[in-house]
Amino acid sequence: MENDVIYMNLGISAKKKQSLYNTVKVTPRKNMPTSSRQEQESQQGPSSLSLCCHKVTIILLGIAVFALLGTVLYLSLKCAVCELCPPGWQLSNSRCYYFSGECRSWDTSERDCTDKKSHLLVLEDEAEADWISKMRPKDEYFWIGYKYNITQEQWMWLDNTGFSGYSVKVDKNAKEKKCAAFKVTDVLSPDFCQSTHSWICKRHVTVLEL
């Protein structure tokens, strides 16, 4: 019985006839708490389940590393030199093109292109003009990098070069139209620079050598 008290009568001296009682408290053995058993088991080393999980993790990491190496090797074999454009731009013939989704004036459009480290579209050849025509709606005008130079009194591309196969349809009744808008035709239409149209920016690709 737990916490029992046992009294023992020990004779110390017969003459004094004095009894001395020594109280001895006996505490029965208790079962070891569950937490203590768990601590002992944890100190004995990891279980077989933990070892299995570690092995699976190592295998998965190995597969991921081999997959990454395979992808890099595939890309290096596929293209020794890769041409990249910024997000949202279109790639064609080593050039990047940005097609706006809103309308602004010519000057504001050019500033937007400059902020994107580019310029308004300068057509280099007829093939490029045909590709641009396929990328835009047929009934839409858009600003390009072609403007009337007052000093030289002639129409000029922003880089003083460009495709010369197009001519500007001059409107004699609107001499203040100094900015050219392009449509799916063989003619560049002059318009007031304050008018609002969508626009196209153009820049060189970023070359990545693997």
UniProtKB/TrEMBL annotation:
It is found in: Membrane. The chain crosses the membrane at residues 56-77. It holds the Pfam family Lectin_C. Keywords: Disulfide bond, Lectin, Membrane, Transmembrane, Transmembrane helix. The gene is LOC114817672. CDD domains: CLECT_NK_receptors_like (cd03593). Residues 92-202 form the C-type lectin domain. This is C-type lectin domain-containing protein. GO terms for molecular function: carbohydrate binding. It is a single-pass membrane protein. GO terms for cellular component: membrane. The keyword Disulfide bond applies. InterPro entries: C-type_lectin-like, C-type_lectin-like/link_sf, C-type_Lectin_Receptor_IMM, CTDL_fold, NKR-like_CTLD.
